[in-house]
């Protein structure tokens, strides 16, 4: 009788996930997707009230979750909280910031704010979760929400692009360093997703026309477009994927 291969499971029962930036937008959607797939999800952000609402809503669906107030720009506090509450089998880092302006108008305080969260905070959060896995001798999947702008340039986005290019760089290096330990590190790179973060850009007719011209599928993304991808990268279905960028950009970067 012919032996047929078995599809690896997309289910996440028995795994603990930490989702940073879970109080809204892509982070919230990722937390919901992981919980629906069976993971026990810790939702983390600065806005405790939003986290509590999310935990209650997920409990109403029969999903397991808890809240952790966290500001990833506070590296010492973040490392202590992850060490105390972990280890986590899955990390999704969706905490991010954008302050768009022409490069000639870049202010040092805007540059510092964006890079402090998008690069420094992301780096040390990923490191903290990996440290817990290494100490426990466990494999894991660490996912940073990056951007299509980590692979191209964009109007008024020099600082944001710089921060996301940096995320791609440290993700690849960490993937090389921790691969033998079974710890995978990848990024998800969305195009413009209809969230509060993108609202100002999407409401600008000129910017909206530029976006719709670039997205080959002809539409702006929705948070639901990210949910399947985060389950895939968190699960055994992506067991041989590390150091990679999963583009969810409607074909923007295909050119």
Write the layout of secondary structure elements.
Blueprint (H helix, E strand, L loop, with lengths): L15 E5 L4 H12 L3 E6 L2 H13 L4 E5 L5 H11 L4 E4 L14 H29 L3 E6 L12 H21 L4 E8 L8 H4 L2 H10 L9 H11 L10 E4 L7
Parallel strand pairs: 1-2, 1-4, 2-3, 4-5, 5-6, 6-7
A few lines on this structure:
It is built from 8 helices and 7 strands, in the order βαβαβαβαβαβαααβ. By secondary structure, it is α/β, with parallel strands linked by helices.
Note down, in words, how this protein is organized.
The protein is an alpha/beta fold and 255 residues long. It has one domain: NAD(P)-binding Rossmann-like Domain (Rossmann fold). The chain is built from eight helices and seven strands; from the N terminus they run E-H-E-H-E-H-E-H-E-H-E-H-H-H-E. Strand 2, helix 2 and strand 3 form a beta-alpha-beta unit. It starts with 15 loop residues before the first strand and ends in a 7-residue tail after the last strand. The model has no long low-confidence stretch (mean pLDDT 96).
């Amino acid at each position: 009788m012919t032996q047929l291969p078995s599809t690896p499971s997309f289910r996440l029962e028995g795994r603990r996930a930490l989702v940073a930036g879970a109080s809204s937008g892509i982070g919230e959607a990722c937390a919901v997707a992981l919980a629906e797939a069976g993971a026990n999800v810790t939702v983390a952000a600065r806005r405790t009230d939003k986290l509590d609402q999310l935990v209650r809503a997920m409990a109403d669906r029969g999903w397991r979750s808890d809240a952790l107030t966290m500001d990833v720009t506070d590296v010492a506090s973040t490392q202590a909280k992850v060490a105390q509450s972990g280890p986590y089998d899955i990390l999704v880092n969706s905490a991010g910031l954008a302050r768009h302006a022409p490069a000639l108008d870049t202010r040092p305080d805007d540059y510092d704010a964006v890079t402090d969260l998008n690069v420094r905070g992301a780096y040390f959060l990923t490191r903290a979760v990996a440290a817990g896995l290494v100490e426990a001798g466990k494999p894991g999947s660490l996912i940073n929400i990056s951007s299509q702008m980590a692979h191209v340039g964009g109007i008024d986005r020099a600082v944001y692009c710089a921060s996301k290019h940096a995320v791609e760089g440290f993700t690849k290096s960490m993937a090389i360093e921790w691969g033998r330990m079974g710890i995978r590190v990848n990024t998800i790179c969305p195009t413009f997703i209809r969230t509060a973060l993108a609202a100002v850009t999407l409401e600008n007719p000129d910017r909206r026309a530029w976006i719709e011209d670039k997205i080959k599928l002809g539409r702006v993304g929705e948070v639901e477009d990210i949910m399947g991808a985060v389950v895939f990268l968190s699960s055994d279905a992506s067991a041989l994927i590390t150091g990679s960028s999963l583009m969810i950009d409607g074909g923007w970067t295909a050119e």
